[in-house]
Amino acid sequence: MFLKTKTENTTKSFYSDAPNGYLESIQKGLSAVRYFSNRMSFGTGTKEDRIALLKKEIDNADAIVIGAGAGLSTSAGLTYSGERFERNFFDFAEKFGIRDMYSGGFYPFPDDETRWAWWSRHIYYNRYIDPPKPVYKDLLELVADKDYFVITTNVDHQFQRAGFDKKRLFYTQGDYGLFQSVDPSNQKTYDNEAWVMAAMEAQGFVKDAAGIYQVPESGQVSMRIPADLIPVCPDDGSAATMNLRADDSFVEDEGWHRASAAYADFLRRHENLHVLYLELGVGANTPVIIKYPFWQMTLANGKAVYACINYGESFCPGEIEDRSICIDGDIGEVLT
Prior knowledge:
Helix 1 (about 20-35) crosses helix 11 and helix 7 packs across helix 10 (about 195-205). The protein is an alpha/beta fold. It has a domain at about 5-80 and about 130-175 and about 250-335: Rossmann fold (3-Layer(aba) Sandwich). Strand 11, helix 12 and strand 12 (about 305-310) form a beta-alpha-beta unit. The strands form four sheets. The protein has a six-stranded parallel sheet, sandwiched between helices. Strands 1-7-6-10 form a four-stranded antiparallel sheet, with helices on one face. The protein has 13 helices and 14 strands.
């Protein structure tokens, strides 16, 4: 109910002849571990000098490859704890002792009605509304007239919401806006927007003047959805689950493979040009997808420049120090 089939049934063999940017990046990342010494550099010059140099590189690069992690969405205000969590998940915090949205995603809820009430809120507040701060739109303004491509481990789809060309986006780890089946033989994905809105209303959330669901003035919302709202796949009636990469059951649908091939093609077409590899908010959880490949591709191309903006985690290998820009700070403030 409320789920719309997004793709036709596909098999991975259908894409066997297409380049796989995801696997190629991981292979580069694994190679990078062997290439580099343990000597890390945190950059040279003042912070103002580094920001000025980054602006110059954005202006002059032949192409920009943006690699984005959770720190970018955090900078945009999509925080998983604090006021946002306390306002929209206060009841779950009180009853179950959950302290943030991330840990809540792993909580063993007592039944499906409660679990899917949680997930409808989690999806809605991170996928179907704009972030509090215009960081994504500021980034687009800087690169809109450039030849760019985005690879991201984020699953909140905020790049597309901000207006980035969806043909230049590769969401490697899934999409909060999609469900898949628990049945591995079903390789389809399903758009969940209509279901999310119905589940929010079923819990008692009401839209404000801006059309955003809020807790009503009474403070009364339900932590359960009706049993007939528990999502199932419309094609075969199998139970639905999130289209998020957690293990080898993750469905890489037609859109995923198309984006993966586009990323590989973009890298090949620009591998000997003046490329800016711009890493934004990538932490230590999945460095082999973005961070390590960016290091390796910068080392392999003498015209390339690596830039990293990250709060408290901005560094590069000593081998590419002379072609790197490391800026320790809030991404939104640096872009501004």
